[in-house]
Amino acid sequence: TDPKGEIYELTNEIKKAQGFKTVVINFKDFLLSSRYNPLLYIRKSNDTNKIANVIVSAKNDPKRKDFWFNAQLNLLNTLIKYVYFEYEPSARTIEGILDFLEEFDPRYNEEGVSELDEQFERLPDGHEAKRSYYLGFRQAQSEARPNIVISLLTTLQDFVDKEVAEFTSTNDFFFEELGTSKICLYVLISPLDRTWDGLVNLFFQQMFTELYFLGDKHNAKLPVPLVMLLDEFVNLGYFPTYENFLATCRGYRISVSTILQSLPQGFELYGDKKFKAIIGNHAIKICLGGVEETTAEYFSRQVNDTTIKVYTGGTSESKTSAKTTNRSGSKSESYGYQKRRLITEGEVINLQQEENGRKSIVLIDGKPYMLRKTPQFELFGNLLKKHEISQQDYISSQTEFAKETIEELEKQHKQRKVQLASAPIFHEKKQENDLNKKEINLPEQPIESEVTEEEEEKELLMSDILSSFDEGIEENTTNNDNSELPF
User: Fold this and answer.
1) What is the per-residue pLDDT across 355-410, written as a single tens digit (0 to 9) for each?
2) What pairs with residue 52 in β-bridges?
3) Cα–Cα distance between 373 and 139 in angstroms, integer?
4) What are phi and psi of 187, to 5 degrees?
5) For residue 133, is it within any domain?
6) What domain range is 66 assigned to?
7) Alpha-carbon gap, residue 12 to 159, rounded angstroms
8) Residue 427 pLDDT
9) Are residues 393 and 259 both part of a single domain?
10) Contact at 8 Å (CB) between 21 and 184?
């Protein structure tokens, strides 16, 4: 993560010279960014619920999961399923969902049917989107349904913007490339604007999931090792299983640096128990100074105690008799030993005041070190400034891998449509519906078959019986026009 874009400006050209492909995802300015479409990472039906949950939770308090929260969540989940199964990958976007809601009115006519109902009714029985619609949104009272749609539109309001629609229209790269090639990804996030917290959080959640999916295909290891530097970590949002990710990521050849301004930020976001687990899953902990009391107290306690010698102030002196020729005497002082912190809380807070702020505390597997920081201008000289560029000049381009992946998604979509059309459950249900409607679908051409002599005799006999029966009806009708028919 690169909150200010400074790292990109100073290192982009250097990383390119080292053979890296560089990509920028800019949540501060979508026009200066590669594109990211979360709906193109749906691999299975359950993924739609994860996406819907993150988007709805970002604009509504997830702690208050009332009727409107759950109704929005259910409807968005249903709509994502619909575009996933029914739309081509190029149209499988949040904007596509908004267009769908705009086109089909949720309000009900005099017959109690809406355009939205009719659209889902067209789907074959057993379709996941149709099933989700009728078990969720359709179960709400008819008066509440238009209001549910309005609430969801309010949640998705930010996606109406043309710049956002373009940003989420496709993928210029896929997360899989992070573990298969030399690629450097810069993620620019505003420290002040919280509008896109949900999209930022979804971006990283999908990244973690995709990297593990890739690793699982290669004996639980990424083909190419990956280093993550997650600066301003709390601005990335809440990750439900982050402690588990940290506990296992090293086995997948993923190195993660979680960077915060202070520990209370993490405790507030994750809670005491969960954030302690997150801290514990980092083998190396670094304090660069300039911290507040809670963080200072933590590092002081982790460095542990030492024993110091303390002057107690007691003295004693003895002299020989003044009458003797040779004088001699002795003097003693009293000292004691006591325990104290190797570095106190106050000393941690004032760390930046020593050696011009060059000191830092480093804990490696619990063992403390006091190390000297080296500023980048001392380490690299004018190398960074010499190759500095402006983030305003970034031009996005789609990677070849992204193009191939999207083409493959299009093929899979066509294959899935064919499979859905030929699924037995749909044909069986259709036949059942035809019988219920008492409709018989006759073939256009008569079916010719071989007829035995015995069958011909039976047909002639039935023909005679029916002929006699018809004559009886005609005679009875002629004799008494008002009489009932014999059957």
Assistant:
1) 777 899 999 998 999 999 888 888 888 888 899 999 999 999 999 999 999 999 99
2) none
3) 62
4) -110, 110
5) yes
6) 37-170+411-443
7) 30
8) 43
9) yes
10) yes
**Same domain (yes/no): 4, 110:** no
Examine the domain organization and report whether 269 and 386 are in the same domain.
yes
Is residue 282 domain-shared with residue 243, that is, in the same domain? yes
Q: Is residue 351 part of a domain?
A: no
Other beta carbons within 10 angstroms of residue 346's beta carbon come to 12
Q: State how far Cα 405 lies from the chain centre.
A: 19
User: Using one digit for the tens of pLDDT, what is the confidence trace for 107-119?
Assistant: 877 777 788 999 9
Cα separation of 302 and 426, whole Å?
64
The rounded distance, in Å, linking the Cα atoms of 333 and 315 is 4
* List of the chain residues with pLDDT < 50: 425-451, 461, 465-466, 468-487
Looking at the 3D structure of the chain, how many domains does it have? 2
Q: From CA 291, how far away is CA 280, in angstroms rounded? A: 19
Residues forming beta bridges with residue 331, ordered by sequence position: 317
Burial class (CB in 10 A: 0-12, 13-18, 19+), 11: buried
Indicate if 165 and 222 belong to the same structural domain: no
Is 147 in the same domain as 112?
yes
Q: Is 321 contained in some domain?
A: no
Specify if 150 maps to a domain.
Answer: yes
**Angstrom distances, CA of residue 431 to CA of 97, 130, 134, 216, 353:** 32, 19, 22, 43, 83
Q: Residue holding tokens 């006999």?
A: 461
Chain centre distance of CA 153 = 21
The single residue listed with the structure tokens 């002040």 is: 192
The pTM (predicted TM-score) of the whole model is: 0.79
pLDDT for the residue 426: 43
Is residue 220 domain-shared with residue 267, that is, in the same domain? Answer: yes
Residue 129: left (phi > 0), alpha (psi -120 to 50), or beta? alpha
Could you list the beta-strand ranges (E) of 224-383. 226-230, 254-258, 284-287, 305-319, 329-341, 359-364, 367-372
Q: State whether 90 and 150 are in the same domain.
A: yes
Q: How far apart are the first and last CA of the chain?
A: 87
